Amino acid sequence: MKSKKLLLSLFIGVALLQAAVPLYMAWRWENVLQTGRQFYWQTAPVDPYDAFKGRYVDLRFKENAGPIIDHDNLIMGQMVYAIIDENAEGKAYISGVSVNRPEKGSYVKVRAYANSQNTAHVILPFTRYYLPEDLAPAAEDAYRKSAGKTGVAAVRIKDGYGVVEQLYIGEKTLYEFLRQSQ
Q1: Are 59 and 153 in contact (CB under 8 A)?
Q2: Bridge partner residues of 35 (DSSP)
């Protein structure tokens, strides 16, 4: 009988502790916001780094929108399919955005974030190109300067997934460009 009371007391103590810890954590951050001293910290440029995967080049693409194929079903913020085609110069573009998975052709699964005049803007799933840590800062700088002019990303797409295969600056791969500039 004594052991049952001890076990019940222990159970109640653990339950109270489990309730108190999240409440304390929330109160602590709110308390800092309300009563803490304010400081202004100078920021520094970001050198993209993922603690688990390493350094990378942060990619942005001109092509991030396409015509909406099925207007009635598209809700902003939902996962949709961006149908990918090539223009006359061999550059990829989004030829359509659909809620339904295409039966043929190349497509990537994306999130629609805005629409305007029958066009859906999407977030492409391949925005990072990982490379050796010693090359990353120079690569990020070189690619940032060439983006929109001569920067191109070669992306492999299959079954709704895309992977950045190589980055090009002009006619050279990013690695060739960096070797030449050293």
Answers
A1: yes
A2: none
Cβ neighbors of 174 (< 8 A, separation 6 or more) are 57, 129, 131, 139, 142, 143, 166, 167, 168
Q: Which two tokens stand for residue 74?
A: 């598209």
Alpha-helix residue ranges (DSSP H) falling in 36-168: 136-146
Q: Which two tokens stand for residue 76?
A: 């902003």
Residue with tokens 């929330």: 26
Q: What is the pLDDT of residues 111-131, one digit of tens each?
A: 988 777 788 899 888 777 777
* Lowest mean pLDDT segment, chosen from 34-48, 113-127, 135-149: 34-48
CA distance 156 to 114: 25
One-letter amino acid of 150: T
* Mean pLDDT (the chain, rounded): 76
> Which among 61, 60, 64, 58 has a CA at the least distance from the CA of 82?
64
User: Phi and psi for 98 in degrees, rounded to 5?
Assistant: -135, 145
CA distance 182 to 179: 5
